[in-house]
């Protein structure tokens, strides 16, 4: 007996519905097996890139379309600070979640953590992550905070930065069930910058940083730095393109930042805003709202705890860093009510210990030994660490400059206003 129309039509519909349910269930199971319930992270760390030196931070003369695109697609933080204005202590603080005096790496080129201090990278790995470093993430090799969990991809980083090894890893990694935390460290903005002849801008076109002698030599140096920033931006675009190819866009957070400010007077090796305030831009489609700016005060020691938090883990309770996940998701504009930073100098060179704290619109800077000659990275570049000036040398300059120098030699403190809306600096020396 032939089936009725209703019987004939019901069975195929039942089979179709069952098939769809099975496919949906398989997709859910597949996503769980691929580790897609945990986000991937792409963290791009520049070297010596100051907050004032890109289009999204108010300098349109810099051609930085990829940074600008990230700001348009995600969140731009205006008050992100590093723990120290030199590479070594800053990166050690990043990986330990602890300030330099607590983790033990206080001067540049040091490599010994305090007893009992541990890296946070194993905490991230414990959440099931493959942790991949390409380029300069740690400061030098054999740093104790770079643990066995880290996959280091070797290759050229200057003058060209090769991403071939990263592409090969993402394409051929054996266990695709594990989410990825990919760290890219670019050194283009670290000295030595590209030759002046390679620069896109002419000396007369650049903006000279405040409190800088405006000379032709100064302007030539700035054209080199602008070129370095723009090359960094192009690499950022290549990294994002690569990540889009191999990682799910809607489940990948990309973050751009820098280890401290520009190698320039009042920048790197100082605790002024240009030395320790850094760009920080994050994109995560569907999670981080687009084209928002957040003024919360955050620190680099917060970054690893944030990744661990997003991964579903918990950071140790006795560290200085704490997750800024709610800030990145733009759920709050409050995180820290004060920001601390410190500088000691380099290991065996240019010692000038400084401490600072910012509270609200004000920053207090204390020079522990104002009688020392305050050198910068520029002095080390020019003198190879063999400085010829003493604290008693007459540096010349205007009467105002000589008076200011005498005040700084006598005093131990500097009071410096700090505004979220402006990075212009004004300081008063006090006893």
Structure explained in plain terms:
With 431 residues, the chain is an alpha/beta fold. The chain contains 12 helices and 13 strands. Strands 4-3-5-1-6-7-2-8 form an 8-stranded mixed β-sheet. A 5-stranded antiparallel β-sheet has the order 9-10-11-12-13. Strand 10 (354-359) and strand 11 (362-367) form a beta hairpin. It starts with a helix and ends with a strand.
Beta strand count? 13
Radius of gyration: 25 Å
Distance between the first and last residues' Cα: 107 Å
The coarse silhouette is globular
SSE order, as H and E?
Answer: HEHEHHHEEHEHEHEEHHEEEHHEE
Helix content: 25-40%
Report mean pLDDT, rounded to a whole number. Answer: 84
**Helical segment tally?**
12
Structural class: alpha/beta
